Amino acid sequence: MFDILSLLQCLLPQINATTMRQLNQIILAMLAMSGRVSMLGISRWTGGGGSYRTILRFFHTVIPWATLFWLFFRKHLFRANEVYLLAGDEVVISKSGKQTYGLDRFFSSLVSKPILGLSFFTLSLVSVERRHSFPIQIEQVIKSDVEKSSGSPKTEIKPKEKRGRGRPKGSKNKNKTEVILTSELLRIKKMINELVKLIANFIPLTYLVLDGHFGNNNALQMVRQVNLHIISKLRHDSALYVPYQHHDSNSRSRRKYGDKIDYCNIPDKYLCKSTIEDDIKTDIYQCTLLHKEFAQALNIVILVKTNLKTNAHSHVILFSSDLKLSSEKIIDYYKLRFQIEFNFRDAKQFWGLEDFINIGQTAVTNAAKTRILYGEFISSSSR
User: Fold this and answer.
1) How far apart, in whole angstroms, are the C-alpha atoms of residue 2 and residue 383?
2) Which of 160, 189, 213, 360 is the most exposed place for a label (fewest CB within 10 A)?
3) Does 125 share its domain with 269?
4) Are residues 325 and 194 part of one domain?
5) Contact at 8 Å (CB) between 218 and 179?
């Protein structure tokens, strides 16, 4: 037990001895306790010096969590010979009441509808070799007034003005690289900049892996602004076009878009790999395609699965802004994004991420991040 607690000694430069002692008592209680992991429950499982007032003081102490996560990772989890990806995802936990800081309605993928609760966005370092996620930065999502108003129903819908065919007179081409970032993307961009500043080139980062919610031009431009390449997923019905090539190589054309990709009849020249397993045929296509909403060409990987018995098929479209990345790595890196879901699962099922009843801003932050740190603590102690 004391060997496990010695892992936290690397955090002493950033937190004082009192806070360290309180954190030790909380970890010991969480190792032994059963039931709901609330402040009252933790205080009942601590030994001497772990009263409810002591636990309360800890959860109301301002702690530099991002620095603690990084110090713990660098000391106990980092391996110099491994490749790391940066992955981002959001976790929603259900909460009731009215006074909890940041309480709002967020979409939960578990129930496929918005629920009342709290939301936290996490940036995690994912080891390609170990295939494990290590959360580094976690921030609570606080909806802005614009985000709240966008979700409310509009009282009056004005009809669109009809205009003639063709392009309006006097209109100009828009530079698609100059985008107005939403409050969500600005929040993520700020988190990435703080993380890059924190690690100070200790780990070379090239790719940011995000889910299909960020499969749009605004997210791509945000990622490029922080000098990273995005790996994400497009909608299954995205309109993708082959870059136009003039039949005469010596001639130039102003035309940009060629033939539109038909997902039921993708040209064989783009086929990279084809496998059959349990009567399911999987075809992997890779090509550089254009999307009219994106400012640049995209490295597209299309996975088509066909049931050889029923001839039913489905497809998934992955993309990256790095045009030189192979299809195998795009697929593998996007799969690794799911490792961050295991951090959320463990925090919910085993460490009581949904059990805390704190309502203040600092207390809510400490309650959530303590449980994430505890998951990393157990992960490192088992190695």
Assistant:
1) 16
2) 160
3) no
4) no
5) yes
Q: How far is CA 331 from CA 284, 285, 312, in A?
A: 10, 11, 22
Domain encompassing residue 294: 240-248+256-333
- Same domain flag for 102 and 82: yes
CA distance linking residue 372 with residue 366, whole number of Å: 10
Inter-axis angle of helices 361-381 and 52-59, nearest 10? 100
Judged on CB neighbours under 10 Å (0-12, 13-18, 19+), 291 is: buried
Of the three residues 301, 317, 333, the one that is the final residue of a domain is 333
The domain tally of the chain equals: 2
Polymer length of the chain: 383
User: pLDDT tens digits, the chain, 383 residues: what are they?
Assistant: 445 667 788 888 888 888 888 888 888 888 788 888 888 888 888 877 788 899 999 999 999 999 999 998 998 889 999 999 999 999 999 988 888 999 999 998 888 899 999 999 999 999 999 999 999 999 999 987 777 666 544 445 566 677 777 778 878 888 888 889 999 999 999 999 999 999 988 999 999 999 999 999 999 999 999 999 999 999 999 999 999 887 776 667 778 889 999 999 999 999 999 999 988 999 999 999 999 999 999 999 999 999 999 999 999 999 999 999 999 999 999 999 999 988 888 888 888 888 888 889 999 999 888 888 776 666 555 55
Is 318 in the same domain as 356?
Answer: no
d(CA 49, CA 52) in angstroms, rounded, equals: 9
Establish if 173 belongs to a structural domain. no
Q: Specify if 222 maps to a domain.
A: no
Residues 261, 352, single domain; the answer is no
CA pair distance 41, 289, nearest whole angstrom: 56
34 with 97, same domain: the answer is yes
Instruction: Specify whether 345 is located in the same domain as 324.
Output: no
